[in-house]
Design brief:
8 helices; single chain; 9 strands; 4-stranded mixed sheet; elongated; 5-stranded antiparallel sheet; alpha+beta
Length: 227
Amino acid sequence: MNKLAKIEVCANCSGFDVGELKGRGNVKIGCIGKCARKCPELQGKAYGFLNGVFTVCDTKEDFLARAEGLDAFVPVDERNPLVDAFLEHTEKWRDEFAKLRLIALGCGLDEELKWGQPCYTLQNGNVAILGGYKEYIALTFFKGALLKDPQGMLIRQTQNVQAGRQLRFTNGTEIAEAEPMIRAYFLEAIAIETAGLKVPVEEKTELPIPDELQAQFDEKPDIQAAF
């Protein structure tokens, strides 16, 4: 389910071996169509495709550093064109939307536009939705109340909200630093949805009726029925 970055390097003269790239993503060492044997300008360089983008670095260390910071590879055809259009016309939080989008898609979720916002689903079940507000961008898990939250990061918007819980961010740096945590929340939410778990619904306590209002109800039963 969890997707990885895509790293492709030349087997003949890239200078990399499997051990150096292990654990950094989905690695292919073989013919990549670009080789120092055919392109002299690549001699002495570290090069390859990182998530489909041909990348040339002066040193192996620089190339490995770039590979370390890769998002999961998401094919273009997995991105919903409605969300593409949403991002194109979104000014506030555009970069933050894009970062959270890649994390969600990298976890294998389907992408839709629901209630005017990017929404991520699993077999038609809602898992999470993004929303931009004045002071923050929120990632809301529909069944967030079932998520383990040892660090207390999830926010319950109001006491009346029973199921949903939010992660809030104010800039892209926060999202990048929290990416492993965000992905862990997504994977747990996916497991919850796969298992078909439901959030227990608490029955709302009936509120006391003020004496003045009760007097109106006693005098005019139709008002109480409408109320």
